[in-house]
Amino acid sequence: MSEPSAQPRPSLRVALRGDILHFLGDPGWGEDGGDAVQFEPDGWLLVEDGRILGVRAADAPPDASWVREDWRGHLVLPGFIDPHVHAPQLDVIASFGAPLLDWLARYTFAAEARYADPEQCRLGAERFLRASLSHGTTAAVVFATVHRNSSEALFSVAQRLGMRLVTGKVLMDRNCPEELRDDATQAERDCVDSIERWHGVDRLAYAVTPRFAATSSPAQLAMAGGLLKAYERCAGGLYMQSHLAENRDEVQWIAELFPQSRSYLDVYARAGLLTSRSILAHGIWVDDTDRALLSQTGTSIAFSPSSNLFLGSGLFDWARARAAGVQVVPASDVGGGTSLCQLRTLADGYKVLALQGQSMPAWAALHAATRGAARSLELDHEIGHFGAGTMADVVVWRWADGAVQQRRQDMARSLHERLFAWMTLADERNVAAVYVRGCKIPTDELWPEADVHAQSHAYGDLGPADCSSL
Ligand code: GUN
Ligand code: ZN
């Protein structure tokens, strides 16, 4: 008996109507973003089969074959990208009274140890990714824990949600509690298994993840560098994520552990860990030689102002990094950082720079959290803007939540003033809708309090534009 021939599915065409904003290029650091800013008030964002088809002005509406979603009076932006965040640390966000090394010992390691339980990994991954979406972040580079199950769970939940995710198991074979310690040989096996299974599959990529130089032996760092080399031609290469020069006591400790290295950054350089797909969080206590090396290797710094303020780590000098040609991307660094919402990151970033006599226009900030981040991650063909063919990861925001924000919006005299006030005052409570690959995620299910088991069935396996199971 012959099988019935598969009918081509009619394409799913959705037009979102609202105040559409994205970047066509780098707007620079002025109040006038120039041609790099595309703002279409009451415009149309056309999405076909989960991908962006284009942006149209208000006077060029699509024909009646398009399903229309009316977000008039709302701001429609590409989903934010968070280039550095720790999934398991949602459990210790906002923990009292400790600078970095004490904070790790007192709160963080204990929280991460719970992920020895695979069920905890699954629940934690579900909770974290849904929380990220509900805060307006649709793509992220994420630290799991040392347990292989923790990164496996993040990959499989992200795959089911259709999200862009870069993650990997943490490497940590010394200077940490026994129950969180791996060894270079087993860790390499675990990494290779996960790389083979996930790297380049759907919207997923593997990040080799030595926690920081203090918790990996030279042998483990060399193993990590070897993985980057071995897979450099596989799906664009692996990512590498770690921490760099966050806190002065930490920098001193690294100098004692690696006396032969010129600097903290040099430890990673010697292990072959600096590539155009490397992301190092913080980079506060570096010098111009380090900045030149960061620039030369294309390594990005994840500027984490909320975390740097909360842990009292120091003030990142973005102007100096920019002058040296270093790529900088704003990051939440939860749970050192105190919010998953990238608007809070940007608002804190502005204040950190203000303390150093620097300024950050809304255009530079919003670009850095969208298209700029995508470019740093070599993902600007897929995310971060509304260019034709990119994935429709879109967040619809309320311009104002409450009377104070509304009054400020009403008083704004220019688009930049409006956006800057919005960026500074708004947060996740302003999120009105989240789309991943063109599928609207039901916001009432974003935070499954009671029963993650039941909720997770709702998503099923998604084809590129098949939102029916949402
Ligand atoms: N350095 C090493 N581990 C961590 C971590 O989990 N958070 C931060 N902020 N810094 C680190
Ligand atoms: Zn971190």
Task: Please tally the helical runs, counting DSSP H or I stretches of 4 or more residues.
Answer: 16
Radius of gyration: 22 Å
> Low-confidence parts, pLDDT < 50 over ≥5 residues?
1-5, 449-465
CATH superfamily of the largest domain: Metal-dependent hydrolases
Average pLDDT confidence is: 93
Instruction: Tell me the β content.
Output: 15-25%
Shape: globular
What is the CATH class of the largest domain?
Alpha Beta
**What is the count of structural domains?**
2
Bound small-molecule species: guanine, zinc ion
SSE class: alpha/beta
**CATH architectural label of the largest domain:** Alpha-Beta Barrel
User: How many strand elements?
Assistant: 16
N→C terminal distance: 34 Å
The major pleated sheet works out as: 9 strands, parallel
Query: Percent of residues in helical segments?
Result: 25-40%
Q: Write down the CATH topology of the largest domain.
A: TIM Barrel
